[in-house]
Amino acid sequence: MDTGPLVALFDPKDGEHARCVMVLKTIREPAVTTTPVLTEAFHMLNPASIGSDRLREFIETGGLSVWFFDRSSLTRSFELMELYADHHSTMSSPETRLDLPGAHSAPGRPPGHGGRPP
């Protein structure tokens, strides 16, 4: 699970909060995220907020698993980054950019964190 949906789930003021809560209720697969996503989500929620407390509880009670990069996964990630390094400039051009839900920026959020579920 990425940052935008996590923030929306635990911030009732987020414009996508109700939608993300509804979508979460329909997901049957285990929810998984990574430590970089959690770092960003806690930062955006404000570490001292009720939303952060609820996110911590959600993780501690098994609602969200955290996947850690092992050495082979990290090595493979670096290989893929190197393999596709030349694609950055073409993928970011307006002609080739994908217009995906969740790729839009919400007010006060960096691009790509519009709070929309995948």
How would you characterize this protein structure?
The structure is a single chain. The chain is mainly alpha-helical. It has one domain. Strands 1-2 form a two-stranded parallel sheet. The chain is elongated, with a radius of gyration of 16 Å. The N and C termini lie close together (8 Å). The C terminus is likely disordered.
Defining key terms:
mainly alpha, disordered C terminus, two-stranded parallel sheet, 5% strand
Give a concise summary:
The chain has helices spanning 3-10, 17-26, 35-45, 50-60, 71-83, 88-91; strands at 32-34, 65-67.
Strands, helices and their partners?
Elements: H1 3-10, H2 17-26, E1 32-34, H3 35-45, H4 50-60, E2 65-67, H5 71-83, H6 88-91
Parallel strand pairs: 1-2
Q: Which secondary-structure class do the elements indicate?
A: mainly alpha
Helical element count? 6
SS strand fraction: 5-15%
Q: What's the overall average pLDDT, rounded?
A: 79
Major sheet summary line: 2 strands, parallel
Give the total of domains: 1
Principal-axis shape equals elongated
The amount of helix comes to 40-55%
Kindly, what is the distance between the CA atoms of the first and last residues, rounded to a whole number of angstroms?
8 Å
Order of helices and strands: HHEHHEHH
Number of strands: 2
